Amino acid sequence: MILHHIQSSVTADNALSTCLRYIDAQDSILLADDALNCLLNTQWQQRLADFKLYVLIEDIEARGLSERLPQSANISIIDYDQFVLATLQHTKVITW
Amino acid sequence: MKKVCVIFRHSPIGNTSSREGLDFAMLSASFEQEVSVVFTDEAVLHLLPEQQPELVGSKDYLATFKALSLYDIDTVLVCQESAKQFGLKESEFNFEAEMASVKQIQLLIQQANEVVVY
Amino acid sequence: MVESFEFNGQHIEVDAKGYLKNYTDWSPEMAPTLAATEEIELTEQHWEVINFVRNFYLEFKTSPAIRVLVKAIGQSLGADKGNSKYLYTLFPVGPAKQATKIAGLPKPAKCI
């Protein structure tokens, strides 16, 4: 079980697409920094629908996205301590 | 001995991330880690022959990839899907590497202790 | 700070540890001068290794780390030379470090 860490916007970098090519169904994805903006886009919501996703509360509030992110069961909003916990709960972290 | 998988996903020449990845791979191998290497996305262009990075002021680090086998880095995989996108065939590879399916690369990533992406 | 020395009327730049800044400045005639800074007197056996690392660099554009040097020399010059004991007899402080310096190459990364 791998935690995939994405930290760049999908419009600037292929990181998320490459990650999705090699990801396993059990793995999770942390959408950090500008990577989280893709959740506003319905096409990306669909591509990511089958994976457990984490987003950091600071990243959301900093970008004024609290009311705009989709309410979806596969998205967990976490703080920094929970992020550290999540990294420990996975066998490894890959930063793309 | 740890299994370290180094993934290259950026183009050669225009940025320095692949040079860093290459240094990291060779250093890890020097410290007797079991290193494997994967080229995916635009990084498959590293395999193209007849590149002359010096013409645009870049160090010729591409020649160094030929030394990977001397560093006991024997697993060098190239994403078949990406190679196809860029019109690259296995017969023209500039150093020893093997075309691999997404499944093969997934397996390598899962079995590694550490995966580092450049 | 850039260090340098004079050789045959030419200004040769080296780094703080005495490695040539530009490997194309090197010529075989310069090797004894560089060897003297390491207190090594060159013999035919030394030359065999120096030529080897020089060719290794020209082919792969990198200075070989010690483990790779041992392996590659074993493959091309035979097992009696491809072992660290033999190489340390020739280059007591560190074969990769000293042979690359005398061959006019950059210091291998993180080598011993």
TrEMBL record, chain A:
Taxonomically, the superkingdom here is Bacteria
Check the record and name the InterPro entries matching this protein: DsrEFH-like, Sulphur_relay_TusB/DsrH
Coiled-coil intervals: none
List the PANTHER family: PROTEIN TUSB
Q: Which NCBIfam families match?
A: sulf_tusB_dsrH
Protein name in the entry: Sulfurtransferase complex subunit TusB
State the species of origin: Shewanella electrodiphila
From TrEMBL, chain B:
- Pfam families given for it? DsrE
What InterPro entries would the database entry show?
DsrEFH-like, Sulphur_relay_DsrE/F-like, Sulphur_relay_TusC/DsrF
Family stated for the protein in its record: Belongs to the DsrF/TusC family.
- NCBIfam families for the chain: PRK00211.1, sulf_tusC_dsrF
* Protein name, UniProt field: Sulfurtransferase complex subunit TusC
Q: Which organism is it from?
A: Shewanella electrodiphila
From TrEMBL, chain C:
Checking SUPFAM superfamilies in the record gives:
DsrC, the gamma subunit of dissimilatory sulfite reductase
Q: What is its EC number?
A: 2.8.1.-
Pfam families hit by this protein: DsrC
Q: Where in the cell is it found?
A: Cytoplasm
- Keyword Cytoplasm attached: yes
Primary localization:
cytoplasm
The UniProt keyword set, sorted, is: Cytoplasm, Transferase
Question: Which protein family is named in the record?
Answer: Belongs to the dsrC/tusE family.
As for what it does, the entry says: Part of a sulfur-relay system.
Q: What is this protein called?
A: Sulfurtransferase
Q: Which species?
A: Shewanella electrodiphila
